[in-house]
Fold these 4 entries.
Entry 1:
Amino acid sequence: GETNRGWGSAGDANEGLERLVYDSSKTPFEMKAVRAMPDGFEIDFTNPVDLKTANDLSSYNVESYLYKYHPVYGSPPINKETLKIRGVKVSDDGLRARLVVDGLRQYYIHTITVDGVKQKGNPTSLLHPIAYYTLNSIPSGEKLPMSELSTKNSSNDKTTSVIPGGVKKPTIPGKVLAPSKNAPETKGADANTAVANSGKTAAPTYDQVKGLLTSYTCIACHNPTKKLVGPAFSEIAKRKYSAEKIVSLIHNPQPQNWPTYPTEMPPMPQVTKADGLKIAAYINSLAK
């Protein structure tokens, strides 16, 4: 009863319709509703949250972006920004959290990620931790004063690390401390690890780049071996492009190179060079 035929393609995953029977005695931990506020967003939860994680700003992330409206198929996110979360106020019953966010942008899509909040009484995370909100208008009304907000951010806390020799020292994120004078000298195989790793690196497998291909929506138009909206990765590999050239073509496609494909690929400038080189290494590994 299932099929692997996707939209405009053969697809590579079995999908289908399944009948689900709702068990009202077990309410999943989810975001029940998300509302725009004058200074951010308000989130309702289906079950009470753990106050420690819900009052921690590192549990949340908010980004905003737009899509380009143009005649070619699809668009990468553009004008993407990570917004600063100034504070959070959690209701006494733990069923609501109000985020105060700087830099809300009207008409932009706002991605609200709540992957650090746990359920009260157990370590369960949200079943679906990401909400998408198109902010067509920013509501007017009262803004929360900073005195009512939690501004704790555990990602900024000092941590303690153990360095060789068993000596503990406080560390600050982003700073590497020198080893203790009493630390044992590293010899033998460990000392030669960097040299051993300096050789030729094996090309990544499909499973290793699948996350990148998904996040950058490459798999919407490309398949490792099948022609979809765009050419198969194996066909691109036959062109013998260098990795740098593939990255260049990702950022600035040349549709004249593929005249038999009527749908032009849009520019993908959001693909970082590092990620593009990983994808290129995988594509070139398919050359026969």
Note: The radius of gyration is 24 Å.
Entry 2:
Amino acid sequence: MGKYSSTGYTMQALVKYHGLKDWSLRLPYHDSISVNTTSMMTEAQISDEAKGGVFMGGKPVVTANSRLEAVVGRIKPGARVEDFRIDSKNLPRGEAKGVGYSSSAGAALTLLCHKLLVGGEPDLKSLSRTARLFAASAARSLVGGFSRLYAGDDDEGTYAEKFADASDLDLRMVIVPLPSKVRTEEAHKEVLTSPFFDARVRSAQKRCDEMEKAIRGNDIDAVGVLAERDTLELHSLTMTGENRLVIMTEDTIRIISRVRELRSQGAKAYFSMQTGPTVFVNTTEEHEKAVKRAVEKMGYRAYLSGVGPEARLA
């Protein structure tokens, strides 16, 4: 009999991926880089004394159960999600989109399943290939810190590895959660119809090298500029796809405009977004509280965050 608990942390993708060249293995077209947060997470508990798969708020989560099936089958062939029960919750609670809860959930659940079905301490780089089957971003959340997902040609070559942490760059984030009804999977498919997709793949791959160099070099300004550029490039793809999908909202634009005002006044503040309207403001310890106050004065809830760790068992 086994009962275990874990925590996985959300991440901000600094260089984001869109589109998958293999949906069953969830292989992206190019590398991506992210940083884990400290203020938003998924907490989960697993037990083989009960059955039914993944539950949230006492209700089964169909999408999570479906994605976790591949994870469980990889960890222990023949095992099934229905053979145990996982109770999961995202903190803080809310209906925001683009925060990164699929990544934190995938990391926490993969770690739990490995502990229950295999035991011992996993090699996170190796296990990231399994977490990727839940969500490609979960591979990066699993290893924590500043991490890079290498987009290989096959399963073995597509894995995540941490290359830096807060001792290399003490990045601070102000996270402004915003709601949306757009599904990430919808956006992944939409970008493939953009006439600029091939150019995006080349640009993002090059930007990963530039971003990693900036992080290792403790260059917050370069990191901020690169993340802004990547954000605008990513969202331009969804807007130029077949269905002309606009994920930004009026609130998003208001916050971006305020961030630019703060920067013009001398603050270290740079906006960043994922697949959703939620805004991350990349900043420093010196300016994080002022940035948070400025956003809250606009009527938005904001959360402070530092560089977060890898997924962990309690």
Note: The CA atoms of residues 55 and 61 lie 6 Å apart.
Entry 3:
Amino acid sequence: MSGYMIIEKWNLLDAAYMTAITLATVGFMEVHELSPIGRIFTIILIFSGVGYFVYIAGLVIQSIVEGEIQSILGRKRLDKQISNMKNHYIICGYGRIGRVLCQLIKEETNDIVVIEENNELMAVLEKDKMHYLHGNASDEDILEKANIKNASFLVAALGTDAANVFLVLTARQLNPDIYILARASNPDVRNKLLIAGANLVESPYDTGAISMGLKLLRPSVSSFLDIALSRKSEAIQIEELFVPKSSQYTHIALKDSKIRQDFNLIIIAIKKASGEMLFNPHFETLIEPRDTVIVMGKTVDLRKFSKAINPEGA
């Protein structure tokens, strides 16, 4: 623009108009007759202007293509990670319940695969750095991509009871041994989910109501349980630990185990292999193979005891 003002002695408006029609290559006639030097300047302006716009367009296209390539490579890398997982959790549905559940499980392990159909939640999954698959959780192909045959747990937390029933049926057929926890909004659907193959059925409304009632009727007990189960406090935790056959504590009475003395832990209960639950077990109770010991204490002490009771699984 300033070139026309200097070379041709044009005013600002004429110079700006001439520069605009030249760069836009619209082919309008010149504002005024150009001198030879002005024509040379116009040629230079055309080539430099077109080159500039081509360069900008190239950057935009490159950015788009690189973004697509990164997206494809990222998806392939994610699929490979999922295919290599074993004993992982599959969470079907990333709504309010599914997301909170994933955050809780992530405190123990990152081996979680989320299946979600809602496009709007894809960005949330990316933000939360979750392994995820986009699609219908009841689809056999999607469940197989989630590596369901090598998974240990599946949570059916879809939006409707009908969808959860169909999901449980499909998942049980694909992996007869997987542990399935299903959500039921309607109490009448509970039996249907159990018949379909769910190991446990929970109603978020019932659970929420019980929790609220406990806070009203037993506020101190509720506060204690919140602290013990929240995993946000280093002061006290409640943990369950499986006793393998190879454990040094098998066939040993509680009084001789020295768990209290060595680890400063309290044995709350022992779940026997048969399913029987022994609350506040007697000091002469034997710890037997395949028992599950429920203990309470500090996080550091719980970790030490976990390694001691099951060194191979630590």
Note: Residues 2-76 form a domain with the Helix Hairpins fold (CATH 1.10.287.70).
Entry 4:
Amino acid sequence: MTTAVLCMAYGGPTSLEEVEDYYTDIRGGRRPSPESLADLMSRYEAIGGLSPLPEITRRQAAALGEALEAASPGRYRTHVGMKHWHPFVGEAVEDIVAQGADEVIGLVLAPHYSKMSIGGYEQRLVAARAATGASFSVDMIPSWYDDEGFIAFAAANLRAALGDWDPAEDGTRVFFSAHSLPERILAEGDPYRDQLLDSSRLTAEAAEVPNWEFAFQSQSQTGEPWLGPDVLTSLEAFAAAGGKRAIVSPIGFVADHLEVLYDLDIEAAELADKLGVDLRRTASPNDDPRFIQVLSGVVRKRAAQAV
């Protein structure tokens, strides 16, 4: 049996020239206003003029393919598909069909489930299969937020970021973060927030960090309420209470991209400097070999369950 593992991520522009079309795809085909486009362009310019996410995702998928080959020779082949930029999920499915596969395991490179996020990837995968007339089976991995390997990796990452700081001191706090989503998902019974809180708690316990809280970040301006509190507001409250040392651990992200490199490394860092707070961030997993082994374990566990 040949199993294609489709590694899916949000996507991102690989040059400033691609930003407008990328943004338009996010907006469902509606062109952004000149003001909104200029704001987004300035953010990408601040981090080097492109998103590193597509290249990192390719490296993650390639390394995962090597790890799976080592564990189960000849069984797995990895592919990359993006939600909002090339190679789109549909393009990846065309490649899978051309190479042949009996089944496809869908692995979204985000640990926590939400119908708006993971559900959207699944819809694209199933629609692309139908469009190609392919007969392969589809098995989506819904989440892996509490995977033992993931928690152990996140805890080790957090301890490394803490360095010589004592996490038990009152003036030191860890802020776990993830992308905000509209508040209405809670009324729909979406597990996103609960899963984020669970993985934050498990990571803090494994790292022996008593002082922590969770905050959302990077909400979009859509005119409706989004989940909070926001990490910037939380940092302000922490400083007002006498806090001096903060670690931001973006538990919801597994690769460097705009929401990490700008929203945290620039925007949050500038705010922390004004507040007199020493701010550190945990390193993104990217293609760290330890993290790749986590992904390999997640895929192989899912495959074993299907037998």
Note: The longest helix spans residues 53-71.
